[in-house]
Amino acid sequence: MKRIFVFVLALGLLAAWGMTAPSLAADKCIDVEKASAKNLEKLKGVGPALAKKIVDHRKAMRIKATKAKKKVWNFQNWKTLMKVPGVGPKLCADNLKTLCFNDKLQKACPAPDKKK
């Protein structure tokens, strides 16, 4: 009887783990829209100075949008984030599966702009 209980309990735990596994993957990303500078420092290639630039840029753009009576401003994607000095294609490539925008990972880094 004891063995049956342990087996059923183990099956229940495996089933519960299987149902929550996808959400665990989403929880691992650092959301640039909400992250503190300390959290952004966990990204490859982001130190205290760059993390502060990202947070300051996000704050400034949100204040600007509020003053213009526009909806809330967000980075939305890597292309917008790359407007912050110091954020470029290498940082994107290194953190594509780690950094998300509104809890969504981007599939690829943006193509470089063609300069005329």
Describe the structure.
The chain has 116 residues and is mostly helical. It has 5 helices and 3 strands, in the order αβααααββ. Strand 2 (99-101) and strand 3 form a beta hairpin. The protein has one domain. Residues 5-25 have low confidence and may be disordered. 53% of the residues lie in helices and 6% in strands. Strands 1-2-3 form a 3-stranded mixed β-sheet, with no helix packed on it.
SSE topology sketch:
Blueprint: H1 2-27, E1 30-31, H2 37-40, H3 48-67, H4 78-81, H5 89-95, E2 99-101, E3 104-105
Parallel strand pairs: 1-2
Antiparallel strand pairs: 2-3
Salient structural properties:
116 residues, three-stranded mixed β-sheet
Strand content: 5-15%
Tell me the count of domains: 1
Order of SSEs, N→C? HEHHHHEE
**What order do the strands of the largest sheet run in, or round the barrel if closed?**
1-2-3
Low-confidence stretches: 5-25
Q: How much helix, percentage-wise, in residues?
A: 40-55%
Rg value: 20 Å
Number of strands: 3
Distance between the termini: 77 Å
Number of helices: 5
Protein structure class: mainly alpha
> What would the average pLDDT be, to the nearest integer?
81
Q: Shape from CA axes?
A: globular
Largest sheet: 3 strands, mixed
In short:
By secondary structure, the chain is mainly alpha-helical. It has helices spanning 2-27, 37-40, 48-67, 78-81, 89-95; strands at residues 30-31, 99-101, 104-105.
